[in-house]
Specification:
Blueprint (H helix, E strand, L loop, with lengths): L7 E7 L5 H16 L6 E3 L8 E8 L6 H5 L3 E9 L1 E2 L11 E2 L7 H10 L2 E5 L8 E2 L2 E2 H6 L9 E11 L5 E8 L5 H11 L4 E11 L2 E2 L6 H10 L2
Helix pairs in contact: 1-6
């Protein structure tokens, strides 16, 4: 059996609508049952929003000390923006609240906007985010109807490609630094095109040197854990 207390790292393909903490809690509970212990350290290296899927790095036991080093790597995402509609949280966790014209948007304009995102820049996080504001999560304040004042983050977009064959849906692949909010990129993308946009699909495919190709489903990992001797 793997010595989980000594430390191991598992790559999980996070399910749709699960929070990152749902995955951590599920794996911790099953580990405690299997090992017969009251507690074991389990953490993740980089939050994924509930509506996102893809690579979630889970560190167990002494490997939780590696979380910061895992989080520093470049992240790669694929997904889809929907042009012409917005939501308060920039994704589909809330209903559409506004519609905008898209008839004026050309392929050339889309490609120019894509170029404008490349490089180091300041990004404003969504108010519905886990950013700390006076010791509280921004999304808790936003959901309570309170005004949220956030500060910009310095981020870097290494590469950004799009496919507009399904316009007004825009499929994309983007590689970026840690701390980048793809929801904010969607919102800014729509604004730069004189319209609006919502992130309607998101999947993390890589984090540093680690790839989604090597990840397993949570339930498959649990079944393998149960059969370990």
């Amino acid at each position: 059996m793997i010595d989980y207390q000594a430390g191991t790292t598992v790559l999980i393909d996070k399910p749709y609508k699960w929070t990152s903490f749902d995955v951590v809690n599920k794996m911790r509970w099953n580990l405690k049952q299997k090992l017969g212990v009251k507690n074991i350290k389990v953490g993740h290296a980089g939050t994924l929003d509930p509506l996102a899927t893809g690579l979630l790095i889970i560190c167990i036991g002494k490997d939780t000390k590696k979380i910061d080093s895992f989080m520093g790597g470049m992240k790669t995402y694929t997904g889809t923006f929907l042009l012409g509609k917005t939501t308060p949280c920039y994704d589909l966790e809330k209903d559409f609240d506004a519609e905008y014209p898209t008839d004026h948007i050309t392929e050339a304009a889309i490609l120019e906007v894509v170029k404008s995102f490349l490089g180091v820049q300041q990004q404003m996080p969504p108010i519905f985010s886990a950013k700390q504001v006076d010791g509280k999560r921004a999304y808790d304040l936003a959901r309570a109807g309170k005004e949220v004042e956030l500060k910009t983050n310095t981020i870097e977009i290494h590469s950004f490609s799009v496919n507009s064959a399904r316009f007004p849906e825009i499929d994309f692949e983007i590689s970026c630094s840690k701390g980048t909010y793809i929801r904010s990129i969607a919102n800014d993308f729509g604004k730069k095109l004189g319209s609006g946009a919502t992130l309607v699909a998101l999947r993390r495919t890589a984090s540093g040197e680690l790839s989604i190709e090597d990840a397993v489903q949570v339930e498959d990992w649990i079944e393998a854990l149960k059969t370990e001797l």
